[in-house]
Amino acid sequence: MLIYFIMLGTSLFFACYAQRAKPYIQRNGAIRRSYYAFCALAALPFVFVTTFRYRVGKDWVYIYETGYIAIRHGIEMIPDPGFRLIFRIFGKITAEPYWAIAFVGLMTMIFFFMAFCRQSVLLPATILFFFVSGAYFESLNAIRQMLAMSMFLYSVRYLKARDWKRYFLINLIGATLHQSSVMYFPVYFLYGIRATPRRCLTILLASLVAFPAIGILLRAAAQFIPRFSRYFGTIFDSGEFSQIPFFVSLAMTLVHIFYLGRFPERDKDFEWMTWMVLIGTVFILNNSVVSGFLRAAEGLNIVQVFSIPIMIRKETDDRMRVLIPAGLVAMFAAQMIIIQGLDGSYGVTPFQWVFFK
After folding, report:
1. 191 contacts 273 by C-beta, under 8 angstroms
2. Quick one: which H or E segment has residue 138?
3. What are 280-324's pLDDT values in tens digits?
């Protein structure tokens, strides 16, 4: 893990300088150039580690290396046409799958950090929570979904601007990389719907009470979605209840609702993100009914990298400004330690450079 902590520390160092320059970028061209330079330097450690890893990540060998070899032999093992095209192009050039996987990792980090630098109100916090939440480590595994997810996060700027053409185009491309991006189409229409503590708590409690009925409806709907229907009738037909991710997501939902009540002034961005986290929690709850909903929930919960900095920026109490982020970091860190340290689900340790393969 030392490599990852060095990566994070270096990135946060430059992100802090970028954050200091951000308030002045509209008034001074030199400072604006410095801001983007520091943003690039903040992204570079993540880009370097992601691009030059070799066989790091649980899915590398079992899915992507095997899938790459299969595609080179004319077997369409990977279902997503856009991603398959990437592998097919690289397959014409080289038999080594590393180059295709490295390219996907490079593009994923570029999209993520372009989104962070353009949209985050507190860049160091966004990078920190991107890391401790496990989203970065997931990008070393579920590389199809994470590339599509990074494109979604980049497209959020167009959602806020109500530029539906660019938003839907980007996520349509993302859907060719991973079908789960289809869920980003309807969330466009959530933006602007008022979220209040009463509404959110009512929906959350109703979802918990109506869990059996919702499970039946979701299972029926999922049978028409290829991404989920392929599990039916297999050993993956229904997943186990994901206790730790559910309680972490539930805690995050309650924190969002708490800040809706603490600062009741209208904030369309934060309210939309609260809806996303709330729906993500409901999805995780139903992962035991439809296998794969946990991944869908992660695709919605990724907006936390923007909403948590908004909460920190909103906070007027100095003590709360420290305690809330510290508590969230501790919660996410505990989740990461359990998943990676005890379970080893990510498969990102030990780290291996491509230079020494």
Report:
1. no
2. helix 135-139
3. 998 888 877 777 778 888 999 999 999 999 999 999 988 998 999
Question: 252 Cβ partners below 8 Å, 6+ apart?
Answer: 277, 281, 301, 304, 328
Length of the chain: 357
Q: Which amino acid is at 61?
A: V
Please state, in angstroms and rounded to a whole number, the distance separating the CA atoms of residues 178 and 148.
6
For residue 324, give both structure tokens.
Answer: 């809330």
What whole-number distance in Å separates Cα of residue 291 and Cα of residue 210? 19
**In angstroms, what CA-CA distances link 279 with 26, 275, 347?**
36, 6, 28
Q: Look at 70-84, 86-100, 166-180 and tell me which has the smallest mean pLDDT.
A: 70-84
Residues in contact with 149: Cβ distance below 8 Å, sequence separation at least 6, in sequence order: 174, 178, 181, 298, 299, 302
Helix (H) or strand (E) holding 187: none
Contact 242, 284 (CB under 8 A): yes
Angle CA 231–234–235, to nearest 5: 105
CB 285 within 8 A of CB 246: yes
For the chain, helix, strand, coil in percent to 5 are 75, 0, 25
Q: What is the pLDDT of residue 227?
A: 63
CA distance 74 to 71: 5
User: Which one-letter DSSP state was computed for residue 53?
Assistant: B
Q: What is the pLDDT of residues 259-273, one digit of tens each?
A: 999 999 999 999 999
Residue entry with tokens 């990389």: 177
Measure the CA–CA gap between 39 and 42, rounded to whole angstroms.
5
* C-alpha Rg value of the chain to the nearest Å: 20
Angle at 301 between CA 178 and CA 151, to 5 degrees: 40
